[in-house]
Amino acid sequence: MKAVVLDGIVLGLQFGLLGVGMTLVYGLGGVLNLAYGQMAVLAAMVVAVALSGGTPALVAAAAGLLAAAAAGVVIDRTLMLPVYRQRGERRVLLGLLLTLGVAFVIDGLLLWRYPDGALRLAIGGEAVPILGVRMRVGSLWATGVSLAVAALLLALRATTPGRAAHAVIQDEAGARLVGINPAAVRTFIFAASGALAGLVAVTRSMTSPVSVTAGFDFTILALIVAVVGGLGSVAGAFLAGVLLGIVSTVSAFYIGQYITTIVLLAAAALTIVVRPRGLLGR
Amino acid sequence: MLEVSGLSAGYLGENVVEGVDVKVGAGQAVAIIGSNGAGKTTLFRALCGMLPVSAGQVRFDGEDITGRPAHRIARAGLAYVPAERHLFPRMSVHENLALGAFPRRPDPSAVRLVFDLFPRLQERRRQPAGSLSGGEQQMLAVGRALVSRPRLLMLDEPTTGLAPKLATSAYEALRVLKERGVTLLVAEQQVPLALSVADRGYVLENGRIRFEGASQDLARNPEVRRAYLGVA
Q1: CB-CB: which of A163, A181, A282 is closest to B71?
Q2: Contact yes or no for B86 and A164 at CB 8 A
Q3: Does residue A277 belong to any structural domain of this protein?
Q4: Does residue A207 lie within any of the structural domains?
Q5: Strand partners, B23
Q6: pLDDT tens digit sequence for B88-120
Q7: Residue range B153-186, pLDDT digits in tens
Q8: B75 touches chain A (CB under 8 A)
Q9: Does domain B2-77+151-228 have CATH number 3.40.50.300?
Q10: b/e map of B138-174 (b: 16 or more CB within 10 Å)?
Q11: Domain spans in chain B, listed from the N-terminal domain onward
């Protein structure tokens, strides 16, 4: 049981980062990015291709993250422009439809070029004892990277771009009045969201392979985490990620892998019924 | 300082204000007075870039700023305090003030000036802005604008939602600012209050300027007295 919960925390930290990328873009621009998982897979495939070409692992990972961030910038600066001109419900709907289109295009292109593509970063097969539990080295790496990035995100809050992002989330008109350009902040966050998705794909591949068809699974997971945490809340996404990670491994261990997705969806549905604002939403 | 000529603006292709000319000199306090729906807010939103200008020109310090996005106009030194305030509700009073100086860090002396003017804000500097009373939020909105050390401070109905006593003290604060050399442009329905601080005033009716002149002349004008000062 202890090992299952520890595994859940390892998985949950990655869920949390995945949710943060989704929730930030929604908080800033009102867009639920349905192509989010495809950005993750795009990064994974860039890393896989670079690795097979003999590129050192760190350089390959950086290239993958950069590719996903660039995809974020392109989507934000082209397809999302008409979305940002709409308000309220129409903005959310148009954003959903357009990003869904992007998801199909990226999926189609990747599947066509790399039908059997998968990223697997095998880091040390042996296991080391942690808190009386034997953990695989890949899990430890994934956890270390996730924690470092989470700390980086916290530190970013106090920087100028971080303060600008929070200002736009809380009151966009107020942000413009103090001299913040919301469009620039949105582009920056869309790029950061792409990099986060790519990062999660890379850390995921340290414990299990990330295949070219994994896009929608990542998207659905990110949506669930963002909804349970409260859309727009970074701390909420982290908390929800860790909780759902534990729920996920416990349920996979005692019930079964396929049912786990349903359990997670049920958790999201229950959140909407019991606490529509999410764990830490407002 | 500010020169507005022939300005028209509105919503969905219909002009709410039309052909408005307004001048504000450096160090002056100028009032735009008019009843609800006269177009004061529309005029202000167009001046600060929150609303597109359909005709006319806005010059600020000799530079044409017509049609520039709001964040660039704000950085050029034109600070706008809207009636709805648009504070950052989950940030503390101090964080709200600090963002006034964006993208730089706030100048400590500018923050001290705000705390001198509104000691209440200093007492509450760690509280989230959303938990403040209406009067305190108004102080914070003005304070946030002041931290940017604006060359022109525009206030839209600074007495909205304030009890009469608080409204009077809000205008006392404006008088202090004027004495310190801050250039002011204020939109106001409560005409006696506005004219007590302003050097000059414009009367806006149905989106057009009806009268303009020195405050004491406007206060003596029989039509202004009948319509806005409740004198038969």
Answers
A1: A181
A2: no
A3: no
A4: yes
A5: B3
A6: 999 999 999 999 999 898 999 999 999 999 999
A7: 999 999 888 888 888 888 999 999 999 999 999 9
A8: yes
A9: yes
A10: bbbbbbbbbbbbbbbbbbbbbbeebeeebbeebbebb
A11: 2-77+151-228, 87-149
